[in-house]
Write a structure and sequence with these properties.
131 residues, mainly alpha, 0% strand
Length: 131
Amino acid sequence: MIGNLSGGEILLLVLAALVILGPARLPEYAAKLARGVRWVRDLAEGAKGQLKDELGPGFEEIDWRQLDPRQYDPRRIVREALSTPAEGGAAPGTEKPATRMAAVPGASSATARRGEVHDPTRATPYDTDAT
């Protein structure tokens, strides 16, 4: 699979190239394609070498697989974040319960930013100026 193309689609493109170009011009275009692929490969190797020179000796220590965007899995990230304790904090489940926010009409959102949670049995506070 190349990009979003499956094997069947690639085969269809090759057959279309055979029909459009014909057997006389196909070797010429195949050679051009091979030169283009070599040029792109040399370009990538040159960029990698330049990056290696500019980053210095610490370049080998970087785990590039960890930085691969294809490794991004939001479920795994959330699972890892919830399973490890916060820096300087207690382990999950051992922290003290949060204080409850009073149901005062017009209460500022600063109380919510302090980590207080809303009690669902009370009325929701709102700002009359904002509504």
